[in-house]
Design a protein that fits this description.
The structure is a single chain. With 294 residues, the protein is an alpha/beta fold. Helix content is 48%, strand content 8%. The protein contains 12 helices and 5 strands. Strand 4, helix 3 and strand 5 form a beta-alpha-beta unit. Helix 1 runs parallel beside helix 11, helix 5 packs parallel to helix 6 and helix 6 runs antiparallel to helix 8. The longest helix has 31 residues.
Length: 294
Amino acid sequence: MKIQNNVSATDINQGSKHTLFVEGDDDCEYIQRLISNHTETSVRVRGMQNCFYIKSVAEALHPINPEYYFLVDRDYHTDEYVDSTWQNFPEPEKSNLLIWKKHEIENYFLSPELLSKSQFYQRESIRPLESAITKAAQNRFYLEALNRVIIDCREIFRLNWIQLITNPELVPDLQTAKNKLIGMNEFADQSQRFTGFIMSLEYKLEQTVNILSGDSPSLKIGKGEWMNLMPGKQILNIVISSNLFKVKSRDGKIIQGEEKLRMIIIDLIQTLSVDDFPVDFIELCSHITRISKS
């Protein structure tokens, strides 16, 4: 299997056989190692830089080459749409598109049981890991709930220029999130045109909070959808930056930041047995094996 990073849409050669395009360099490396370690295929994995346009690229290219396949982050797609891509993949008459069932590939490693199997984990118990994950997620919780509502509104009203909130310190609780949402200038026109618009925004935010938290006043492992739908990479970066994990280079230097996270994930992909993998990883390998034989 070959791996190639930093591929733009204009770099794609039409003659390639069984090529899987994914979002970015990290995903490219993770998926390449997953497939090469647990399947026997000739599928090539390539990372695309312009991830925002990968769905459009998929729709444009499938008539040209039905042996191109695309795996993208879930981001804010609905359950129904995501499930349909797994049930129908590959679907060359449409786009050969597969969407992760969780927000992004890093979410699959938010599991304390899975993370604790890393050789770099420094504790005997998984309890410190559970605490670190929930704390990191709780600090971003209302920010992410607010942003999910903003994304929904952008889709409904085609207001794509509405900026997401990036600083979790600005959204520490539900009331602050409500105030920021109903106070956005971009919604002023809608609030005048539609009776009850502001009330509907508040309801949508409350509903999103309940879905993510599982109606719990604080986040708990295995309760609600937050581990699946909140951006996993941001949470993981906070968790692994603590002293729960220690990663060293070959010359003994301590590794930090995104490189530390990358090495932990690669270690898990290469050392775990198939039985320890998330179900979606196993299903992906099954799909790849099937299309490589076609």
